Amino acid sequence: MSVRIAKSAGFCFGVSRAVELVEQAAGSGKKVATLGPIIHNRHVVDKFRTLGVGVIDRPDQARPGQTVIIRSHGVSRNVYERLEKQGVEIIDATCPFVKRIHGIVSRAEEEGKLPVIIGTPTHPEVEGIAGWCSHCEVFAGPEELENWAKSQNNLKNSSICMVSQTTSTESLWKSCGKIAKKEFTNLKIFDTICRATEYRQSEAAELSEVCQSMVVVGDPKSSNTGRLAMICREHCDKVFLVDNASDLKAEDFCGVTDVGITAGASTPAWIIKE
User: Fold this and answer.
1) Using one digit for the tens of pLDDT, what is the confidence trace for 193-225?
2) Which of 111, 125, 137, 198 is catalytic?
3) Disulfide engineering: 12 pairs with which of 126, 182, 256, 265, CB 3.0-4.6 Å?
């Protein structure tokens, strides 16, 4: 059996940076807690727990003297300010690409523009982005965007600023851009999809076109991993989304001669190699 592992599989820059910041803080003897799981991967979170790194769900759970690390997804302005009031050391591990979007929507609103975010409304990254402006619109895809645009008679000439969740697919983003250009005359579009994400998705598509089976490794809760599996299923009939090697069975690959493996941005290399 031939097994091909995607070159881009595993940690992206932002996730790798966040993990390193936690490791450094824990290694220095500080009382460390992350605000939410540092990344969407239970294996990494469990590893940090053994090193004494806790997880808090809300800023008010932080205690003076603690070092609190903001995860790579980022948080809203309100959450950040609430955390500052707790008297803790803050280490901001927000992915720099996500941080850039915070600045874009914040400045857009100051300039009188309406921020429009394309992404999963309940995803932590999107919630954080939306929290850097007082009012915005969030749409999961082109259909929602188009229905909203057509229902707002007074928005045709309004000043609109459109951004995307960093892990969105290129095809979804382009579809939204096409609709926005048709519906709004005063529109500024910022392509904020992470290029590493774009490359990982493109590589997954190419692998799934030539392999009889695809294995996508990552936490089922990860939006990034879920999108990879969705892309693979567009080209391959046999796709397995697994948390680790124990989720696979030998009989899953009966008659399969070519297997492709890719992984979400929150999956460490040692799990992929299993």
Assistant:
1) 988 888 899 999 999 999 999 999 988 888 888
2) 125
3) 265
Tens-digit pLDDT profile for residues 246-271: 888 888 888 889 999 999 878 877 77
Going by the DSSP 8-state scheme, the letter that residue 237 receives in this structure is S
Q: What is the pLDDT of residue 102?
A: 98
Which residue stretches of the chain have pLDDT < 50? none
- Check: CB of residue 110 under 8 Å from CB of residue 116: no
pLDDT of residue 157: 78
Compute the distance between CA of residue 41 and CA of residue 157 in angstroms, rounded to an integer: 44
Q: Which two tokens stand for residue 53?
A: 């790194």
DSSP letter for 158, please: S
137 is known as an active-site residue:
no
Q: What's CA 122's distance to the chain center, in Å?
A: 12
Residue 72 near residue 17, CB atoms below 8 Å: yes
Residue 101 and residue 239: Cα distance in Å, rounded?
33
- Residue type, position 89, single letter: E
Element (H, E) at 89: strand 89-92
Per-residue HEC secondary structure of 24-80 comes to HHHHCCCCEEEECCCCCCHHHHHHHHHCCCEEECCHHHCCCCCEEEECCCCCCHHHH
d(CA 254, CA 89): 53
